[in-house]
Specification:
By secondary structure, the chain is mainly β. It has a domain of 81 residues. It has three helices and 28 strands. Helix 2 runs antiparallel to helix 3. Keywords: Photosynthesis, Photosystem II, Signal.
């Protein structure tokens, strides 16, 4: 099977959810299945080699998250990492730190975690069971029979829907998105959560894989080419024209441009908030998975083959940059000292700057 044709969400969920079923051996020799939402992440000397799916700034520090509830933090620009105390062992997919101390992580099982100390320890705020009940309560209040039926299915299925993105503007206001159109928001730092499904023009419940937010606008993108925009502080999200009908996994913005990337190397940019699109020629027809805006104003893009690209020339071509990764790049972050790091299936990998290309080699 051609991996480039596999929906990235399904691919990662299938690959990584197996870790969530690893059980702890009981005294009688039986290996019961322990709910990974109830099992704290195991502290391991091998944590730095785990599958990592997210990496962000927390002030001057770096925080990364991935399989089995593993969260790592670094105070030395990624030279060394310390494993955090995490109350769950589900795969974690995304992070957001609006301040150096307060951050949120989301992942499989509909879990939302919060830290008050820069990522060193975490507490659970929400999981898929509570999320499903929140959606059911909201649907009943609205009297929407279709939503009620779907929410009842969510409750019946249990916490099997992953959250795939999270953004907080500050310590109180934020939201999370996920599979099957799931979207929840909070105005009180996660003390309570509300369903935002009725704010989003997504009647088919398509997966929401990526987000990009500024102070004034929010963009969501996902399955079957769906792109949504909010220009009213995330009160409503309306579909905008999409230049491609395959799934998106990358959303980024800089200097007035919006960039989207997805399956088979498809990438486009828009100078006008999605009203018109320009195709970007990728180096290879391989699914795009991540992007980072560097301090010198470049947008670097990673893909499933471990390739790095940046917009060059007239802005309509994604030029390859020499990359030592050789495996899927799932996220990228630039440290305070300018060094670039990539989250991969075997931990965090360092990329070294060069003046000519932006990235020269790794270690």
């Amino acid at each position: 099977m051609n991996m480039m044709k596999i929906n990235m969400v399904v691919f990662l969920v299938t690959l990584l959810s197996t870790w969530g079923r690893i059980a702890t051996a009981a005294d009688n020799g039986v290996t019961p299945l322990i709910d990974p939402l109830q099992r704290p992440a195991q502290i391991s000397a091998q944590a730095q080699r785990a599958v990592m799916l997210a990496a962000v700034h927390a002030g001057d520090h770096l925080v990364a998250a991935g399989e089995r509830g593993i969260i790592l933090w670094s105070a030395d620009n990624g030279a060394s990492w310390t494993q955090a105390v995490v109350p769950v062992s589900v795969t974690l997919t995304a992070l957001s730190f609006p301040t150096a101390e307060h951050g949120w992580a989301v992942g499989h099982g509909g879990v939302v975690l919060h830290t008050k100390n820069g990522g060193r320890s975490w507490e659970r705020q929400l999981d898929g069971r509570a999320l499903a009940q929140i959606e059911l309560d909201s649907a009943r209040r609205k009297g929407d029979e279709n939503r009620i039926k779907m929410a009842q299915q969510l409750v019946g299925h249990g916490p099997d829907k992953p959250l795939l993105g999270v953004h907080f503007w500050d310590e109180r206001r934020g939201f999370a998105i996920g599979a099957y159109g799931l979207i929840v928001g909070t105005e009180d730092g996660g003390a309570s959560w509300q369903s935002w499904i009725d704010r989003v023009d997504n009647p088919r419940g398509l997966h929401l894989n990526a987000l990009y937010a500024t102070r004034s606008e929010v963009y969501l993108a996902g399955e079957q080419g769906i792109i949504l925009r909010s220009s009213d502080g995330a009160k409503t999200f309306r579909q905008i024209s999409s230049p491609y009908k395959g799934s998106w996994f990358v959303l980024a913005g800089h200097d007035g441009y919006l960039l989207v990337g997805g399956l088979r190397g498809n990438a486009f940019r828009s100078p006008d908030g999605g009203a018109t699109w320009e195709a970007l020629q990728a180096s290879a027809p391989v699914t795009l998975t991540s992007a980072v805006l560097t301090k010198d104003g470049k947008i670097l893009i990673g893909n499933l083959a471990g390739m790095l690209m940046q917009i060059s020339g007239n802005g309509l071509r994604l030029a390859s940059i020499p990359s030592p990764i050789g495996q899927p790049i799932t996220a990228m972050v630039q440290a305070k000292n300018g060094s670039l790091l990539a989250a991969t299936f075997t931990g965090l990998k360092s990329l070294v700057h060069s003046d000519a290309t932006g990235v020269a080699s790794g270690r």
